[in-house]
Amino acid sequence: MWMQRLTLSAALLCGACVATSSSSRVMVGYIDCFDTVRDRTFPGVDVVGNPSNEDVWVFEAHEFGFYKFSTCHPVHNGFDTVLKIYTIKPNTYDPNTGTLELDYWIPSYRNDDSADCEFSPWLSDLTRPMAPGFYAIVVEAAHPNGGGKYKLSLDCPVPISGYLPCDASVSGNTRRGGDDVDLLGHPSNENIYSFFVPRAGPYTFSTCDDNTNFNTFLRVYEVIPGTTTLNYRSFLLGDQIARNNNAGPSCEWDRQHSTIEGHMLERGHYAIVVEGKEEEEGRYTLHVTCPEIQADGMIDCGEKVIGNTRGDNSELGFPSGEDIYVLPVEETSQHIASTCEEETDFNTVIHVFEVDSYDEDTSKVVLGPRIATNNNDADGCEFNGLASELAGPLDPGNYAIVVEGVLWKEGNYGLSITCPDLCEDGITNEGGSVCCDASCGECGGCGCDQRGGMPNHGPGFCCPSTI
Questions:
Q1: What's the pLDDT at 339?
Q2: Alpha helices, DSSP H only, in 304-426?
Q3: I want to staple 220 with a disulfide (CB 3.0 to 4.6 A). Which of 242, 281, 308, 453 is the partner?
Q4: Cα–Cα nearest to 199, from 113, 295, 126
Q5: Cα distance between residue 421 and residue 439, in whole Å
Q6: How far apart are CA 73 and CA 124, in angstroms?
Q7: Which UniProt keywords apply (predicted)?
Q8: CA–CA separation, 228 vs 205, rounded Å?
Q9: What pLDDT, on the 0 to 100 scale, is given for residue 28?
């Protein structure tokens, strides 16, 4: 493997120093996480890569994760940039003597043009997973003898402190020690939470709580898609889209606590940052309020609805889109919810939730606990093996029937609700006794109004867990 030995000046960490080799001089500097450096590639020489002058910047990856290098910044007299990352030969970089060896002909990663750059498609973005170690980033021109001024930024992975669910609260402490670090915003430690927005709408984040004992500062960042590590320990932050220092008059501690209220977020992945103003640190409680769930309609015994979950919000269960229907029940009776219909063309899942409240005028629904789930288990479905079915007695009240897909699957479906009369159908258990409803007494050793367990849960079993 060809190597080019560069000797860096002893003042390497100054940010823009001169390096020498046996035959040339190259502009070299050191760039750290979350830095943005500004420089130019002339005067200079061509040592590596394209036949144009280049600058070489050394950086250290402190942990495994995704790193983003970008020249996508407005600069007067800029040029068509190319970014290349070279590995540095192990044990050859010495910041005291200023020496290193590059892998000369084989850059690890490169990028010429960035389709996502808002300033110019000729600028470069390079986002790649990196293992711990020292690397060299080369900035040069895409064309011979090209060059000019540029800005180079480096974004590094940030550690995930935890995950935020909807309509919940988490408590933490940003005092120095442990895994808390200061990477963003004020010179105080911060906690960074991962938050998945299930559906577009207004979201509220607040540290207004009597447990919060310092002057907090809240920030909301986009998370760059595809940069969360497989062990879910870190990700790359995108743009900051909201921030707040003072909660306002709605909080009795408004000068100390923070609230981002009703901020409109699109469905996606975000980071919520809790830190202190200036150097303040301490304990806090963070509250998350999500927009209300809206039902797609109502359904009753003997009815069938046809729908499509593509592009729908994902609030419950799998990350696929879902539709929600409210089922009113006036008296205890057997109900069967099924997607065994000819319209169903994807692998469906059915959930049944109790409903705490439902507004027919606005379709706003507040869900209670989930009481049943079925995935791809509709025995004997004549149409396909993708359908799901749930059967069992329901007491008086409102229930939510949720249709979604396994994992990310979405598509068309038919959902039907039937309410068989067990007495008329003459349902019997293995002992030969007929079980109609709760008034029948015992059925196979348990009350007829009790729900059975898997796998026998169809209308032919009153108490399948004992049969």
A1: 93
A2: 422-425
A3: 242
A4: 295
A5: 13
A6: 10
A7: Signal
A8: 22
A9: 67
Distance CA(467)–CA(462), nearest Å, equals 9
Least confident of 96-105, 115-124, 227-236, 364-373: 96-105
Q: Does residue 368 surpass a pLDDT of 60?
A: yes
What is the identity of the amino acid at 376? Answer: N
* DSSP-derived 3-state class of residue 233: coil
Burial class of residue 214, CB neighbours in 10 A (0-12, 13-18, 19+): buried
* Average pLDDT estimate for 33-55: 82
- For residue range 438-450, list pLDDT tens digits in order: 434 344 333 444 4
Q: What is the DSSP annotation of 148-183?
A: -EEEEEEE--EE--EEPPTTEEEEEE-SSSTT-B--
Determine what percent of the chain is predicted with pLDDT higher than 70.
Answer: 79
Distance from C-alpha of 115 to C-alpha of 105, rounded to nearest angstrom: 26
| Cα distances (Å, whole numbers) of residue 362 to 190, 293, 295, 299 | 39, 10, 9, 16
Give the C-alpha separation, 288 to 259, whole Å. 10
Q: Where are the alpha helices (DSSP H) in 59-208?
A: none
Q: Which residue has the higher pLDDT, 124 or 376?
A: 124
pTM exceeds 0.85: no
Q: What is the b/e burial string over 14-52, where b = at least 16 CB atoms within 10 angstroms of the residue's CB? A: eeebebeeeeeebbbbbbeeebebebbbbebebbbbbeb
From the list 401, 383, 269, 267, the residue with the least C-alpha distance to 322 is 401
Q: Please determine, for residue 302, whether its predicted confidence score (pLDDT) is greater than 70.
A: yes
- Starting at the earlier edge strand, list the strands of the sheet with 412-418: 304-308, 412-418, 333-338, 389-394
Are the C-beta atoms of residues 151 and 71 closer than 8 Å to each other? yes
Per-residue pLDDT at 25: 37
pLDDT for 398-457, tens place per residue?
999 999 998 889 999 999 999 876 544 444 444 444 444 443 434 433 344 444 333 333
- The number of angstroms, rounded, from the C-alpha of 126 to the middle of its chain's C-alpha atoms is 21
186: its two tokens = 């004020």
Find out whether 219 and 137 touch, Cβ atoms under 8 Å.
no
- Helix boundaries (H) for 210-350: none
The HSE-up count of residue 260 (CA atoms within 13 Å, CB side) is 23
Alpha-carbon distance of 24 to 110, in angstroms, equals 23
Instruction: Give the residue among 430, 435, 432 at the shortest CA–CA distance from 450.
Output: 435
Local confidence band at 212 (pLDDT 50, 70, 90 cut-offs): very high
Q: Checking phi first, is residue 465 left (phi over 0); if not, alpha (psi -120 to 50) or beta?
A: alpha
Tell me which of 427 and 55 has the higher pLDDT: 55
